[in-house]
Amino acid sequence: GQSLEQPSEVTAVEGAIVQINCTYQTSGFYGLSWYQQHDGGAPTFLSYNALDGLEETGRFSSFLSRSDSYGYLLLQELQMKDSASYFCAVSQYSSASKIIFGSGTRLSIRP
Amino acid sequence: DAGITQSPRYKITETGRQVTLMCHQTWSHSYMFWYRQDLGHGLRLIYYSAAADITDKGEVPDGYVVSRSKTENFPLTLESATRSQTSVYFCASSDLTTGGFGYTFGSGTRLTVV
After folding, report:
1. pLDDT by residue (tens digit) across B57-98?
2. Contact present, B93 and B29 (Cβ < 8 Å)
């Protein structure tokens, strides 16, 4: 089976930096993805890590440690529009394109 | 227009009725997926398809049927709707050749079973 754990809620201040952690347990781990979803909207793809290390895309970065079964999403220079839910998701070797999502972290930004 | 579209956006149906949710993509992506999302929860995989005429079960397939006769269409059918199937349903597609294994999601269908 598979399991992913991420905090249910995180609150941060506009302009600050926030880190959303994700730990996973899965056989045949292949990669870790991150998605953003605004209320009432569809999930949108943010980033993907298959190898250990940090991937940076603008204000967002994602990190993976395969040995620790752990990853995180780092959001810098927070803006009010970053208020959303963030999901980590794992893909397995046995079916590289099928991904299983975590329960999501609701990020609230305060002025 | 290019993209992935779901229909209908909203649907109310009665318990026991058959309901079909439609999903259409214009990219010729090989992979397509159906997820359900319940209030306060993540997305749970119902079924997925690697290509036309190839489908497989996800985490929560019971009570659902899929087909994929054409690459661009992936309808989801609730054979006999139950109240527990009240949810938001998202269709997604993916093209492995683009790298990153990112999915593109449709806008969702909000289904209420009464």
Report:
1. 999 999 999 999 999 999 999 999 999 999 999 999 987 655
2. yes
Name the residue among A30, A33, A65, A60 with its Cα closest to residue A48: A33
User: Does the distance separating the beta carbons of A97 and B42 come in below 8 Å?
Assistant: no
For B37, the token pair is 């999302």
pLDDT tens track for A53-81: 999 989 999 999 999 999 999 999 999 99
* Residue-by-residue DSSP string for B25-78: ESS--SEEEEEEE-TT--EEEEEEEEETTEEEE-S--TTEEE--SSTTB--EEE
Say whether B43 and A43 touch across the interface (CB within 8 A): yes
Closest by CA position to A101, among listed A35, A12, A9, A19: A35
Q: Do A100 and B50 touch (CB under 8 A)?
A: no
